[in-house]
Specification:
Helix content: 10-25%
Shape: globular
Strand content: 25-35%
Structural class: alpha+beta
Number of helices: 9
Distance between the termini: 43 Å
Length: 495
Amino acid sequence: MPLSHRHIRTTVDAYLARHPHEREQLGGLLDALDRTGHDITSRFTFTGHVTCSAIVVDQLGRVLHVLHLASGKVLAPGGHTEPADECLAAVALRELHEETGIPPQAVTPWPGYETVPFDVDTHDIDAHPGKGEPGHQHFDFRFLFRLHTAPETPVVLQEEEVGGIEWRPVDRVTSLALRDKLLKLPLQVGPETANASALIYNDRGEYLLHLRDYFPGQIWEPGMWSLLGGGREPQDATLEHTVRRELAEEAGLDLADLTPFGTEYATDDAGTTVPIAIYAGRWNGDPRELQLTEGVMLAWFAPDNLHRLRIADTTSDLVRRHAASRPASTTPQSELAAQKARRPASPHGTVLNVIGVHLYLERPDGTVLLGLRHPDSSFAPSTWHVLAGHCEQENAITCLIREAREEAGLRIERQDVELVHVVHHIDKAGDRPRMGLFFRARTWSGEPELREPDKCTQWRFWDPAALPDDLVPYTRVAIAKIQNGELYSETGWPA
């Protein structure tokens, strides 16, 4: 599956936070990310598409260049994305290996640039009529690495694309912008980042912490609350691979999205400083149900309660900094606690409901848009359903607009959206209850297209009087209620 625009946007935002003066020169990239129906990861999107390069510095401070036969230029190793690439940095590492034979394990991210590009460059590419390619732009994400193996690391050139390699001193780097940044970079850097941790949060604003075993002298931070994570191993192509492997091994966790957040610098009792790449991810599960293989326990904690714990100051500051970056309630925590105390207890305890948004898209002829879900879908496989998705850290209408753009390439404006039905439903007894919000788009632009074929295999407009038999039951109820002008329904609840 192609890299998501969300991942690219997050990476660009992190880069511009360091280089705000470059926002104007990256205007073309930002416009492309906002454009509906354009996959900027595809090399066949000729309004402009993403490429990635690996800037590799050896122990002598020289920078790796290759002769690209197609352009005749001497540049850093790099190229286009592929559907199997998991992140932008992985593209750069794959291209490095393909073009020069240098494996990902032979390099490490430059400290401080583990999750953020060292440079982002926009440049024009000449037309190639013989290939049917018009002139276009490359949005090149340049990731900085240093070679940590011997200089005589074997080089195996990709002969059909690369004519040779050259290690150049920094003052002879071909890209002027890159050269200026490298000249400002100290050659003597701190320790390599070979560790990665996960900053996991839930929709209640709590953070998942891991109580480590108390084995002084044997493990890092014994008996303290910390983040899940660990050290990079030879099979890990990137630090994101490291943190995903550690989550799976330590707790059986597999998070859909992990976003680079920053670097934590931890110091042990002997004064040794270890940089740790931090990836943030959202999860709303119960830690008591996880199979913990290391440490004592996992638990959720609100940032205001961290002072009660035995926790490193750097970890505590990291959690608070992330919490401050997220949309927060304007009600003070003390008032929230008081409100909670005043509420009467539910007879069965408080249960969080999943909020789902649904697009009711009706053409002037009265037909309604439905999508056929993929046979491998975990919910309602090979069944028709309206365009839908779960709310993330966003309001419902923002979620609807995002899902419509991501799933079907439809552009909807907030002022054209109205709530037409709410269905409170459960699939079967014991399941988490769900609140489905159905919104009508009075107008929209674009025609439905398969933007996520792993989720939906077909879009089609149906007559509400002749809906398909294999339709999600609560969707059938909601469509009928909308046709009758009824705002609320319930399905799946015991009589």
